[in-house]
Amino acid sequence: MYFYRCVTIKLSAISVGTSPLKSHSLVKTVSFAESTASSLIEEDSEYNLSGISSSSMEFIRELQETEFKQHMLKGTIWSIEGDPKLYLGLPVESYHLIKMLATKASLPLTDIFITLKKIRLNYSFAILAKDFGMSISNSSRIFAKSVMILSKFLQQLIYWPDIKNIRYHLPIPFRARYGKAVSVIDCLEIQIEKPSNPVHQALTWSEYKKGNTIKYLISCTPDGLILFISKGYGGRASDVIILEDSGYVEHLQPGVAVMADRGFKNITNILQQKIVYL
């Protein structure tokens, strides 16, 4: 009520004839003050909620929360279907694969959305829970269960194309100087929690990252198609050891070239045995 009185007194002291404010603007401002005061009174339980029991209020809040979660879920699904590239990393023309995946993996669409959105955007489970109208623990459980199931189906999409196909899609900057390149390799290190086993601590320790990590050798074509992912190795393993043990070299054919950074400079002898250039 203090807010209403202050605004009213201030506005009534202004002369309409001399003020640059128009009369209709003055009326709108006063009505805004009145509506604000009314909303404050309506929100005050002393005026409006004295006759409602606490159990009824709790029931009303639960209904409101349920309705809010349903709206959030519908809005999130609508956003994903409108722009799957942004939220899931999947082009619109390939969105039908999601429904096929749901059928093959026997997973609800919501579970697939949560898993792929987590992988794509790395949102916290608290944000995912808000987006999909569920609890944080539930979103975490869904991801932990679904990511293992989806990996079994999605890893089938990782394959090594033939050389003609790779060279047909070779980017223009590669064709002049790196026309024989069929693979670009690098090692990905993912930090993990410190293992309780001292042996595992030593095997996963990475001097480069100054922590315990898991390493993967990843290869892609010059135009960005992932064609090889190795199994996980402890952070202590060198890039050369991973390349030898992962079976990557077996996919290379004589006469092709591999592109890598300086961390792989010691693999020249390994590649030359198959007449492959670095």
Structure explained in plain terms:
The chain has 278 residues and is α+β, with helices and mostly antiparallel strands. The chain folds into three domains: 2-43; 54-155, no CATH class; 163-272, no CATH class. It has 14 helices and six strands. A hairpin with a 5-residue loop joins strand 3 and strand 4. Helix 1 (2-12) runs antiparallel to helix 2, helix 7 crosses helix 9 (136-154) and helix 8 (125-132) crosses helix 9. It is elongated and about 85 Å long. The model is unreliable at 1-16 and 21-47 (pLDDT under 50).
Summarize the structure.
The protein is of the alpha+beta class.
Gyration radius, to the nearest Å?
31 Å
Number of helices: 14
Mean pLDDT: 83
Residue share in β-strands = 5-15%
Amino-to-carboxy terminus distance: 79 Å
The string of secondary-structure elements, in order, is: HHHHHHHHHHHEHEEEEHEH
The count of DSSP E runs of length 2 or more, i.e. the number of strands, is 6
Number of domains: 3
Biggest sheet character: 6 strands, mixed
Q: So what's the overall shape? A: elongated
Structural class by secondary-structure content: alpha+beta
The residue fraction in helices comes out at: 40-55%
